[in-house]
Amino acid sequence: MPVTNAKKYLSSLQDDREIYIDGERIKDVTKDYRFIGAAETMAELLQMQHDPDLTDTLTYSSPSSGDKVGMSHIQPRSMKDVKARGDAMKVWMDATCGMLGRSPDYKNVMVAAWAAAAEVFDRPSFNGSDNIQNFYEYVRENDSTMTHVLVNPQVDRSKPAHLQESEIVAQIVKETDAGIIVRGARMVATLCALANEIVVMPAAVTWHTTETHKTTDYAFGFAIPTSTPGLKFICRPPVAHFDAASPMDGPLSLRYDESDGIAVFDDVLVPWERVFLFRDKEAEAVIRGQTGAGPHALHQSVVRAASKAEFMMALALAIAQSTKIDEHNPVQVMLAETISIAEFARTCRIGAEAEAHETKFGTFSPAMRHISLWQSMFWKFYNRQCEIINTLGAGGLVGVPSFAELAGGAKKDVEKYFQSVNADSSKRIKLNRLAYDAALSSFAGRQRLYEQYYSGDPMRTQSLMFRMYPKDEHIQRVHDMLDDLEGRQNPNWPDKEGGPAFERTWD
Ligand SMILES: Cc1cc2nc3c(=O)[nH]c(=O)nc-3n(C[C@H](O)[C@H](O)[C@H](O)COP(=O)(O)OP(=O)(O)OC[C@H]3O[C@@H](n4cnc5c(N)ncnc54)[C@H](O)[C@@H]3O)c2cc1C
Q: Whose CA is nearest to atom 48 of ligand 1?
């Protein structure tokens, strides 16, 4: 089937999914004020695949049907494919200022990578190879959108799940001829209300990396439709301000609040054909270490970061220009900092694609080296970009009214008193409301937390980076340099006749 479109996507969400928010069960997420903004943004992105100017960038021909399917499903077979996938993702990311973390490409690349490594799902406890391959083809051909939950709920982080006497953590409670029965919860399902499928895989990076499960009740991987009976999503309250007098007061939050929820499995039947890993003591290691999916999954993240950092840089520049503070040297230093952050993210993407390499599965993978660099630093840099916007916007971020005030009783005063040297009042109010939404609002706070945690706890991922980094050659270099100098010491030092401290290399 060819790529989906806006209408088909929105109607695919009108099913029996159980979505709870603010104490209510939502009947139709496409009509609820808390979800409609992000739902329509997702629809817009999917519709873009039909735009004649974009279709060659956003799609490729399906190897099974020949139909046009989304480029993020591609299993790259060359460096050119990796770059083409990055270019496609950049189009969606630019369209959403990098603020919609879970545009469909995020999960698409991950599932494509797992399927490319289907052979590793052939495990002693269960052969999930065909299932992961079939699931990949299903989502590719149906252009399904996906959420995922990789983390056990925060109950007791002093012990791994299997040592906790609790029914809270999602676990297998029964096996039947039809499939496995799962009970318990997982976190955090970003986009849960707006996805067609949920993927449930072992935790990404745990503290207990070397420990195998003593019971395999928690060691599984599967995917099911979000409307599966017994599956519920309990969402956090929205971060958008719905009492705003004008949509221009929430230009980001009203469109990109993608929702986050906890997934509750109330004795949910997972059919065998959707099980990828089953009672597998090494389930986490299989996903993390053997499929090579990490750099593919994070390819979308690094492209998104490039768009987002460029957007935050542009916003800081526009704010500074509006009141001409960009003429002051210390402000220029801050602007140079935000420019550097945008260039850092862009360079990480370029490096990851330029050093893409062939894997043992015959696919080409972006280079983890540049991706790890992004993962270690970007969340801190992003916080700094917000801080710079807040610092430069200063009182102006809270000192402008709603955009609706331009049509209110004080219209004349608003036109006069809210203009600045480089912007009339309409332009300045819009700009400052955008800056507030991007850097200071609840939406901004959630974005900051997202950058810090969504791809795993940075404490864990950075410690992993440390462990994986080829350190020995660097350490040896320091010792070699010292040994070399030690051997070349001038025995007459200090040599007042003018001899050097160390023997010359050219003598
Ligand atoms: C906005 C947002 C969206 C997200 N979306 C998704 C999603 O779609 N899918 C998904 O699967 N996950 C998602 N996540 C969850 C994310 O994967 C987790 O937040 C992340 O893995 C960290 O786990 P945690 O939140 O359980 O923190 P915890 O493990 O509870 O850790 C909390 C703090 O305690 C510290 N800590 C915990 N244990 C130890 C220890 N043994 N030693 C030292 N320090 C410790 C951590 O470093 C951290 O600072 C999302 C998170 C956020 C914030």
A: 457
